[in-house]
Amino acid sequence: MIRPLALFLALALGGCATLSKKSNLEELKPVVESFHKVIRWKDFRTAARFVVPERRQAFTRARLDLQDEKDLSISDYEIEEVVMSEDGTRAVVQSRIQWMRLPSATEHTSVVNSEFVYKDGAWLLERQDSGPFADELR
User: What are phi and psi of 92, to 5 degrees?
Assistant: First the structure.
């Protein structure tokens, strides 16, 4: 009797973990899409809300110092891959971002790995390894 009960509990709890991970992935998708949309349209105040609190001020300050509302153009982005941690609380999102920052006339294409963390019931951007925001989010 104990063995079937233990097996049932293991399967049930494993199913909850899978459901939770799937649920977190479904919550992450609109956050990732929204972040990319707002940066493309230069809505950096809204973009800052997607950044973890401890990096938010540096992100906002850099947008002002670099005059990104005027000088940064993101012409295109594509979400390529999302890898979720086993516990469903961290994710690495790979995207391809095409961008240009004046006075340079060169368009850059960056493959950006963005690390998102699930904190206090919300997905937040913790760091990026390249692209136009890498210096303050590295």
Answer: -110, 125
Q: What is the pTM of this model?
A: 0.83
* Residues 94-123 pLDDT 10s: 999 999 999 999 999 999 999 999 999 999
* Number of other residues whose CB lies within 10 A of the CB of residue 105: 6
Closest CA to 55 of 132, 130, 128, 131: 128
Q: Phi-psi bin for 120: left (phi > 0), alpha (psi -120 to 50), beta? A: left
User: What residue ranges define each of the domains in the chain, with the CATH number in brackets?
Assistant: 24-137 (3.10.450.50)
Query: pLDDT digit string (tens) for 32-52?
Result: 999 999 999 999 999 999 999
Q: What's the CA gap between 60 and 62, in Å, rounded?
A: 5
In DSSP notation, 19-76 reads HHHHHHHHHHHHHHHHHHHHHHTT-HHHHHHTB-HHHHHHHHHHHHHTTHHHHEEEEE
